[in-house]
Automatic annotation (TrEMBL):
Pfam families: DAO. Pathway: Cofactor biosynthesis; thiamine diphosphate biosynthesis. One of its GO terms (biological process) is thiamine biosynthetic process. One of its GO terms (cellular component) is cytoplasm. SUPFAM superfamilies: FAD-linked reductases, C-terminal domain, FAD/NAD(P)-binding domain. This is Glycine oxidase ThiO. GO terms for molecular function: flavin adenine dinucleotide binding; oxidoreductase activity. Residues 3-349 form the FAD dependent oxidoreductase domain. Keywords: Oxidoreductase, Thiamine biosynthesis. The lineage of its organism: Bacteria, Pseudomonadati, Pseudomonadota, Gammaproteobacteria, Oceanospirillales. InterPro entries: FAD-dep_OxRdtase, FAD/NAD-bd_sf, Gly_oxidase_ThiO.
Amino acid sequence: MNDFLIVGGGVIGMMTARILADSGADVTIVDRGLLCKESSWAGGGIVSPLYPWRYRPEITALANWSQGYYPQLAKALAEETGIDPEFRSGGMLMLRVDDEAEALAWAEKYQQPLTQVTKEFIYSTEASIAPGKEQAIWMPEVGSIRNPRLGKALKKSLEQRTNVRILEHVEVKSIRVMDGRAIGVNTANSVLSAGQVIVCSGAWSSGLFNAEGANGENLLPQLPIEPVRGQMMVYKAEPGLVNRVVMLDGRYVIPRNDGRILVGSTLEYDGFNKQTTEEARQSLQASAEAIIPALKEIPVEHHWCGLRPGSPDGVPFIGAVEEVGHLHVNAGHFRNGLVLAPAATELLCNQLLGQQTIIDPAPYQPSSRLEETEGEII
C-alpha cells in the first residue's frame, strides 16, 4: 500500500507527487487518460492571473508565491530531465485598461511592479501591435511557461523516481471509505489502496466525491466545481513578431520560443463538451488580429479547447476534507491552474508533511469554503 494516492495527473497532481516522493514517501498517481493532457495541456501558460487586481486576495497570495518559484522550477526540470519548459520573463502589456486606478492601488498594496505606460512605450516595446493604442498597463516581471513542455518535464521527472508509480488510462469511480476515513479508490476494474488520498482532478473532481455508506447515503460533501470550456488557437509565425504577452479587452497573445503565437481564450459553460466551434474560431482570430494585424497573413496551425475547473469566486479548495479522514483535495483553480500550481501544491504538501505552511491555509480549507460558497459558481 502506498503512502499517498493522487487522483489526477495534471500539473498540480504531478507537482504534488514530485514533492511527496522527494520527502521519502511512496506515491501512486492515477489518471483517467494520459498525464497532463487536459486543462494543464490546453492552457496558455501565463504566469499571472489576467488583470490580477480584479481577483480576491486569496488568489494574489498564491500567485505571488508561484511567480517567484517558476523560474527556478523550470531550470531545475530542464537540468533534471533535459526538457526545457521554456519559461519566458518578457513581461505583460495590457492595452486599453479602463480600471487603471484600481490596478495602481492593487500594485501599491501588494508591492507589485506595475506602471501606466504611453503610446511611445507600447510601440517601442512591441512594434507589431495594431496602431492607435494610446495607453496600457505594464507588468515587467510577468512571465509565461510552455505548459505542454512543463507537463512532459514533470512526467519524466516522476518516471525517474523509483518511489513513484504512474497509472494512466485508469478511471477512478469513487473514493473508498472505511470507518470514517479514505483508504483508497474504486476504479472500473480494481481497488487501489493508500494511506492518504488526494484529489487533483480539475473539472472532474466533484464527480469523484461519492462514497456510499451502509444506508446508501453519500459520505462525502459535494464540491461546487464544474467544467468551463476555453477555446484557443495557435499561429505558426516566425520568431520576433511578438516577444511578450499582450492583452486587449480580455483576450491575449502569447509568444513561444519557436515563433508560434497562442491566442485565447473563450469562457463557455457547456458541461463536459470538448468540441471546438466555428464561432469561437472566428472570434479568436478577430481578437488576435486586433492585437497583431500581421497575423492576418499567417495561417492558424491548430484550434483546440480544454475544460477549466470552475469554482465559487475562483478560489481553489486546498486541504483536508474534515468529514472523512485521510482525504485531501487540491482543485477548483478555475482560470489560474498553471499560475497557482506551485504555491497550491506546496501549501497542501506542507500540511501533509507537517511543515510550516508558505501562506495561511485557512482561506482554502474545503469545509469552510463549502460553507461560505454553497451553490454559487462563477
